[in-house]
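Follow-up to my post from last week.
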Amino acid sequence: MSSATGSLTRPPREVAQLRLRGARGGIIPKHRSMIRLRWTPGRATRAALLALTGFAGVMAALPAVGRLWGGLFQVALPALGLGDQVGWHRIDVGSLFSIAIPHPVVAGPWPGTGHFIGVGGFAALLVVLSLLLPGRFLPMRYFLRFLAAIQTVSIGYFAFATPPFPYPLPGYMGGLLAAGMAVLALVPIALGLGFYIFDHTLWRQLLLTVLVLGHLVVLLPLQALSHTWLIHHASLLVQPPLFFVFGLLVEILVIVGFYGWAMSWEGTEIPRTQTLGAAR
Amino acid sequence: MIRDILAIGLWSVVAVLVTYTLRHYLFTLNRVFGRQRQPYVDIGVGDWPRVAVYVPCHNEEKVIGGMLDALLGNDYPADRFYVVPIDDRSTDGTRQIIEDYTARFPGRIRPFIRSEGKPGKAAALSDATREAEAEVLMVFDADYLPGPNLLRQLAAPFFDPEVGAVMGRVVPHNLNRTLLTRLLDLERSGGYQVDQQARMNLRLIPQYGGTVGGVRRSALRDVGHWNEDALAEDTDMTYRLILRGWQVVYQNRSECYEEVPETWPTRIRQIQRWTRGHNQCLRNYAFPLLGIPRHLRFAQVIDGVLLLGVFAVAPVLLLGWGLATALYFMGYEIRPGLIVLFAVASYSTLGNFAAFFEVATAVRLDGSRNRVRLLPFVALGFLVNLLAVSRATLSRRSWLAPAAAGPTWEKTERYRAGNDNAANHAAGHDTAGGPAGGGQPS
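User reply:
Got it. Predicted complex:
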């Protein structure tokens, strides 16, 4: 009796397999509404190991990344006419961990009349451009107006404020790059939660990690240099929009871009289905 | 002092956003790895209940013919269902098309014509369903294309006497038209494949969505019929059913095809309409729900409140941006340190990643590959939604008493090229059997 009950509640493996067998012996694929992945110890261990190893690996590599960025700044700053001073911001966790984060030491000038006219004109241009764009570019219109709004607030602030600005350019750069390093360390954790748990092969999981980290390691100092150059020439007026719109948000979108691409890669369990339309 | 107050405001906004972020992760991980609860999907044979299918129409000449064809081609026992197209003051050729079908399918098409009373879908449904004979009352919008098995799938859960309403999955069929339709396709995937199914899995509160679904007649009477003043009669019905102890069931397997907006202005109007209706429900049902009725679990209450507040999050986020900007210019700085640095970076990275994770997961589970590459563009849709929803939330109509606001027909523009099916009928061809696009993918 107990075995009969057992067979009702938990069909034998063969019965379960037969349920998926087609009339001609093929496997009937599951409908997409029912597809799921099994949370096996192997999958959990692999995802956790990859995430933690990745995190530890990035943390261990950060000092070298810092040196790489420092070297890049020493070459790029003079080439851009921004002097040759590189500052180092040190973060220590007791005696366990220490990292020096380089950043350009360049003055961000307080805005003068010319800056107000130039940047104000640019903000007005953004608004005009947003009005000229066709309706199908509505998100771009909103983005341009959002950018113009932040720029206008910044202009309003500097029109009435007196020096010093709470966030001098070298400090802003140090903060941006420190946050960028933290994002680098968090990439394996984010992928552990959102990518390693899926049915991709190990080499694809590693490939995405390397692609994202490699891209960010190159992007972050270039982003810092471009911000520095812009602020140095256009004054502190442009620092707030750069911070709010073109700061860490850029890194997030880069991660999402790569992630979207990687989620389109073939896996080992979830089948590709062809449904309505060819472009799914 | 002002800075401290603003900082408290900002941290409160962060707390709200973190709550919704955690919900994204919970739902997504549950959908991927949890036991998929689809208890009624295997029911293929039974003493099928009598079903009436209601199709509210207001100027739907482009699509109503296709809808009626698809319904008539359904494999539900023909003697067990009939279709009630509700024509509410259409000024185009809708009524003529309905009359044509009525003449051709006597008894199976039973039109309900309205020329007076309150306008709007809720009022039209209320009038038309009041004297319903059928046990199960299904509702479809006129632009939908149900597949041949859909009515059976949606009727099956009603064998369970505790089920008050059933909701199926909505899948766009015009996704290849514009960037917007592709983005809406991704958004719909996330909403149904992950959100709704996770709610079903976790026995929370799946939402009855007002189309591709049905309500039990006795449940409808128990909750006092459709609320004619509701701007979102579907959400309103969901909460009244839940508060009265009925179950709402989501059937992920039951797919139906819809036309999503192809232009941004149409999309904005649509989401603003949803916002006003949803916020009306927030006002009406948040407090009754927070009273924690005895038949509801605490998790259901939390989920119900979060679902009610989902459209109110947009202005909260905007407020957060405003506060962050103000504090920035006031020189507010969090005390620097490694932990704080990681906390802020985690919030930026993992917090922003959550919504993309949900959408990408849904699309992958759907078995699609190419379209998930559009993932970063979802941010564009998000920006438009944020502003449109905030504007609608802050508008008077979101918070006015219903009588003052007054429901109307706020229709979404239709894009299907003319009424080919109706034209075929006029020429004497029988197109019953459903359009080609109405079949369900496997």
